[in-house]
Amino acid sequence: MPRHLLEVENLTVRLAAGKAARPILDGVSLHVAQGETVGLVGESGSGKSVTCRSVLGLFPEGAEADGSLRVDGNDVLTMPSARLRELRRRDVSMIFQDPRASINPIRRIGDYVTEGMRAGGVSRDLALKRAEELLESVGIRDSHAALRRYPHEFSGGMLQRVMIAGALAGEPRLLLADEPTTALDVTTQAEVISILTGLRTERAMAMLFVTHDLELAAAICDRIYVMYAGRIVEVQSAEGLFNRPRHPYTMGLLAATPRLDADRPRGVPGRPVSLADALTGCAFAARCAHARPRCGEQEPVPQVIDDAQVACLRAEELFDE
Amino acid sequence: MVRFLLRRIAGIIATLVVTSFAVFGSVHLAPGDPASFLLGGRSASPAAVAAIRAQYNLDDPFLVQYAKWVGGVLTGDFGRSVQFRQDVAGLITARLPTTLWLVGYAALLIVVVGLLLGALAALRPGVVDRLVLLGTGIATATPSFVAAMGLISLFSLQLGWFPAFGNGSGVGDRIWHLTLPAAALALTFAGLLARVTRASMLEELGREHVEVSRSRGVPGRDVVRRHVWRNALGPIATVTGTVVAGLLVATSIVETAFGLSGVGQLLVGSVTVKDFPVVQAVSLLVVLAFVSVNLLVDLLYPLIDPRLTHAKGGAS
Amino acid sequence: MTALPIHRRKILAPLTRLAGGDKLVTAALAVLVVLIIAAVFAPLIAPHDPEAIDLSATLSGLTPDHLLGTDQSGRDILSRMLYGAQTGLLGPLLVVVISTVLGTLLGVSAAWLGGAVDALLSRMMDLVFSFPALLLAITLVAVFGVGLTAPVIAMSVAYAPYVGRLARSVALQEMTRPYIQAYRVQGWSGWAICLRHLLPNIVPLILAQSAINFGYALMDLAALSFLGFGVQPPAADWGAMVNEGAGAMLQGAMLPALAPGAIIVITVVAFSMVGEAIADRVALREN
User: Fold this and answer.
1) Which residues of C touch B271 (CB under 8 A)?
2) Most buried residue, A232, C101, C116, C247, by most Cβ within 10 Å?
3) Which residues in chain A show pLDDT less than 70?
4) Looking at the domain covering A4-106+150-320, what would its CATH class be?
């Protein structure tokens, strides 16, 4: 079987002693194949951002990571710093949620876009030429002038495009997108999404798309992982997840999405698990309508049901119902 | 941009006018007759009193006196010193080099030590940070005259490395003589600058764009250089204004403690003998220097943060 | 604690919390208490008359009779330092109290009345900012003569804008809160709202700033005494003692100059720590 581009196996991340009662990531396993677009969906606090950042070797201060995280066969967790920096420059890139906070406000746009390239040894002039082309490719007109402008002269949507251009500078094989459209208004969201989907086709780039919006993920991803309280609870093809969710949490998420043609949305009762709560058994048991006593005692292991992998003790029973 | 500059200069002129008015007018605030005040309470012959009255135009209305004084100041005539019977301008010019050397030397120490220690504390949390906090805590609590005594006691009297008094002559000798005074002058302010630098850098280090830069494979040292330093300069520049004001006045104390014949010591000596022309002149010059430095710092801000130029002088 | 009436609980609580929180801050508070006791009870505690000259025992060094030695006139240094705490603490106290009251008044008025009044008061504060405190004090001493009066007045005026600026910005912030608007709409007068609701919310921050200003005032007043402008000999004052001790240093006795210097540093450090601790508590409460 050909090696996946990104292979995460049993990744567990614990914060520094005393900061949390449970691991922030608990046995997370996922993979992204070459050219595939994979979604990672969950509420705030589910650990999806931490997972995303882990791929680049960015961990919270003082945190410990166990398990393995391989990009193209190389384990990020044990990589020497110089190799890690090269990984960040060339193989994997990330775009972040708030472009205004992510780009240094007192340096020029050209500076931002070329920074990664120049750290890799590319000459300044060559890097600026590449930057100009990149800005054009993300739809910024008059890119030559744009290079000399400052971030505050751009709108949020434009800045997000700049961030994408910067991320593409190293010609990455894998693009990590951490809620790239959450901070934008709906029209701009659509524009940015179309740029991303266009680019992934052009460059045959794999993408890990992190979001809390299940509908958005279903629209652009091939496969989707659903996370809750630091654990993966379900993984299926986008079409399968949307139409035949297997995990009670996924079902709840879908039911909570407002839709024009459906009844009023029903939220998932209860509140997300905080880091101060230790977990026994299934993380979702407290909020699950289908919970049984054993759900609070035994931690569910992912099982294959139909086309999906589900971490639920009652998955088969619910499937039959 | 030009409009901003003009507005600030107008503000400075206004400040100087009010200050000079206050400084000039305080002679008349003093209890008793201005003439005897200017004579320093010394009894004098009627001819001397008449001379003083003529020299200071004391028979003219107050505003005319003020106008004449300002006229004199603008042409460099600050009047005559009562104790030295010389032109005040000449007295000041003679002593200016020593003071400028001292203040310049101290400023260098402040900037180098303050920025270095502050950056060190921000970039190396833990023991180094705590040591710097302890050191700067004590430094900011040590007035310059206490520092002067401590330094003289240790480095001059016990170790004999540096002289305790005097200006020195010639560049090398001057620097040797001015080292302890400059250190005494610099101590409090270096501590203050270190703290502000540390706080500002810590704040910038926590910003998201710093993490983003790291995530793109830029080495740590370059990240600090390109994304933390310049972003942290704002508060540091502001503190510089405070430091300069403090330096200009604390120099009086240090010059007195070390027996240096600078402008500050001239001021101190003139107070007890009520040599008011000197006090007036020096006060005015100090205020002028202070507001000029503040203006300079304000002009520097747009260089640090381009968002400001666009806000003030841009197409809006 | 529950047995205490509510208003007293509110006063004591910050103190006990302060003391309990941090060992360093507790030490700082202890130092301050010792100093205040020294100042108030100096006549009872001091082993010698601070102004008693004894030419047979000049520069004696540490002896059982003179725990910190004597100066060139044979006066006991320890006694002088204890008495020195009186002017050493009183001067800054006056400066801080006056500048805080003045500054708060100016700042809150500027914020509340707004418009032309705000512009005028802010310009006035800016004007005083351009005149360094020490220079103002020196000028006033030149006009009105030496002693504590001129310096205290000068520094109260010079420090007022620092408090005023803080008071103004905090007041402006508080004024945007809905509860102030609510009181206005209900017909409360400006004075009443300011006194009963605005002030209590800005007092903690101003208090923190004032504690830190106390240290600065102490340093500046001691410097003035060192120059001979403040407290006059033969009265005991830390700054003046350092000046007198300079001559002793040249004769090889370090203590007369260094002991008062050290106590100045210790006092200022203690006040800064307490001030910062208060500021931290305020910041924590806001969050």
Assistant:
1) 138, 141-142, 229
2) A232
3) 1-2, 261-262, 320-321
4) alpha beta
